[in-house]
Write a structure and sequence with these properties.
This protein is α+β, with helices and mostly antiparallel strands. 26% of the residues lie in helices and 22% in strands. Helix 4 packs across helix 5.
Length: 344
């Protein structure tokens, strides 16, 4: 009998000289005033215009996709957060849920959508909305504006007038949760469409289009960094859905988010930006694929985390929003899942 097969994830490439298990790309601080190959895979099609967006896929027999089953006698736990969700990524089964569809502020978890909208823009080859479609790349040099540097909240210590590649800004945004990098990306893409007068408006429109395309009905964006604004919100369910989609479409985002620290230079080599990851669970919780922190006064502490077990056959996507101690609560949640479920 012919076995059914499904695609699970992208095969590894080399990223910053390190071999990762998902596709990587050489693209790649919250401000102090705020807390916060497969060698047997088929060859790439030769006619692809942009190798960055090509995918090498490996497949596993359908029978090897195991469903999580709760062990007998395992009790629920209380996670101290406004909204919580943990999902088995391969089966889509919910493992833990608390007010997962409640609309809440998500702070810098917003930057996952910022990254997704940015990479969608880079990939776009045909769009009535985009002038010179497909001409924008992660090697685009961005001149940092005063308005970006003055962005409220967390900072990547960018300097007015310095020039940095868009891909490097993506790193700064995702690793250090830099609001100024997020604003610089949004301003640059808006300006490249001859819409400078809109500030970041055009890019925020791209973010909302991206959310709509992903089916995130409980999500709406007003800015690219997650600063508290009335109509800037999402749900734990939507954040997990977004993350699962990004793992398939743009796994390089999560490669970036598990970089512990890095030095990024301006184009002229005169300015160094030493940045450290805001995720304190890196290096202490096993199996981290990637994640994103978030914090504002109104949103509270939040954390999205993707974790694999030691066999790398099971993957959890989990988020805590508005937590009292996001790292402790997330670690408690992940350990409870591994202890409470078995896959068979």
């Amino acid at each position: 009998m012919r076995k059914k097969i499904i695609v699970l994830m992208s095969a590894p490439l080399v990223f910053f000289g390190i071999s990762f298990e998902v596709i990587s790309h050489p693209v790649f601080s919250e401000k102090t005033k705020n807390i916060e190959i497969d060698r047997g895979a088929p060859k790439e099609p030769e006619n692809r215009k942009n190798a960055f967006f090509s995918r090498r896929n490996y497949v596993l027999p359908l029978e090897q996709i195991l469903a999580p089953n709760r062990k007998a006698g395992k009790e629920n736990i209380l996670i101290n957060a406004k909204s919580v969700l943990a999902v088995d990524d391969f089966s889509g089964q919910t493992l833990y849920e608390k007010d997962a569809e409640k609309k809440v502020k998500i702070a810098s978890l917003t930057k996952l959508a910022t990254a997704g909208a940015m990479l969608d823009f880079v990939k776009t080859e045909n769009s009535n909305l985009i002038i010179k479609a497909g001409n924008y790349s992660l090697d685009n040099v961005v001149e940092i504006s005063e308005s970006a540097v003055r962005a409220e909240g967390d900072s990547g210590s960018l300097l007015v007038g310095e020039k940095i590649k868009a891909g490097e800004l993506l790193k700064i945004m995702l690793i250090a949760s830099s609001n100024d990098a997020a604003r610089a990306i949004a301003e640059d893409i808006t300006e490249k469409n001859n819409l400078k007068e809109q500030g970041i408006g055009y890019f925020v429109g791209l973010m909302n289009n991206f959310a709509k395309k992903e089916g995130l009905a409980g999500t709406h964006f007003i800015n690219p960094d997650g600063i508290d604004e009335r109509d800037n919100y999402s749900t734990a369910k939507n954040v997990v859905e977004l993350s699962r989609s990004l793992l398939k479409s743009y796994p390089e985002i999560f490669n970036i988010t598990r970089i512990d620290k890095i030095n990024i230079k301006s184009e002229d080599g005169k300015n160094d930006h030493f940045i450290k990851n805001t995720n304190k669970l890196l290096g202490s919780l096993p199996g981290i694929v990637g994640g994103k922190t978030g914090y504002t006064d109104e949103a509270g502490e939040s954390l999205l985390l993707v974790v694999e077990d030691s066999t790398r056959q099971h993957r959890i996507v989990a988020v805590v929003i508005g937590a009292n101690g996001r790292f402790l609560e997330m670690e408690k949640l992940i350990n409870w899942v591994w202890d409470t479920y078995e896959w068979k």
